[in-house]
Amino acid sequence: MRASLLQIDVNEGETVESRRARVASLVRDQAGSADLVVLPELWTTGAFAYEEFGSEAEPLEGPTYEVMAKAASDAGVWLHAGSIPERDPEGPLYNTSLVFSPSGDLAAAYRKIHRFGFDKGEAVLMGAGEELVTVRLPQTTVGVATCYDLRFPELFRGLVDVGAETLVVPAGWPERRRAHWTLLAQARAVENQAFVLACGTAGTHAGVPQAGHSIVVDPWGEVLAQAGAGEQVLTVEFDPGKVAVTRDQFPALKDRVLGLATPRR
Ligand SMILES: O=C(O)CCC(=O)C(=O)O
Fold first, then answer.
1. What number is the ipTM of this complex?
2. Phi/psi of residue 141, nearest 5 degrees
3. Which of 78, 92, 103, 108 could form a disulfide with 36 if both were Cys (CB 3.0 to 4.6 A apart)?
4. Is 147 tagged catalytic?
5. Domain over 2-248 is classified CATH 3.40.190.10
6. What pLDDT does 264 receive?
7. Which tens digits make up the pLDDT trace of 108-123?
8. Buried b (16+ CB within 10 A) or exposed e, 202-225
9. Whose CA is nearest to atom 5 of ligand 1?
């Protein structure tokens, strides 16, 4: 199976419309060289451009949906189109990921569960998703998570429990914590004996330099490929069958102990 992670440069020198068209063209360029294409988190606005969330928010089936559905079908690829600031007509904004099939149909939408910012930014501007999301591709079952979710191992274990073998994580991770990004991507791969495809952004927006360094890790924790800091297409070939082999040969997941008692005081 081949995957292309499109590490997009998100900066203020480009309008949302022109970036949307540019990214769609990059997706089309992957025709024939990737089965799955992955985009980063909030690449229309930038994950830290909090002031743009309200003005650029779109309904689920808004302009990004339309352009990306067409790009997926033009290229004939599975497309994890990263996330958009979604305006729910009956609720708050959400940080929502869209996954399209090669025919351009929406295969899944995932509202980010862990919002970043503590008592500001995304954490107060957006609502929290509540549902785990997986997508069955012909080659593998994909479990989706977004950026800050990477810090919460229980979410990934939940995805594994419902069949995920390949964990896809779009992000807008800052350069300041790049070491965490690489370490956490490897940790999630090792502990879940799963592939991790984590796609970040490049550039600087809202004064926050982005880490780039999108990464693909195999179920043994080996880094199969890692991008540099700038805009880049990171294409990698991997064997999804390695998940079953790893889980069979080193069956640590079977040794989980659930429902541990809390200590008595
Ligand atoms: O956890 C981090 O360090 C970065 C998270 C983040 O930037 C986000 O979720 O948008």
1. 0.96
2. -95, 120
3. 78
4. yes
5. no
6. 86
7. 999 999 999 999 999 9
8. bbbbbebebbbbbbbbbbebeebb
9. 148
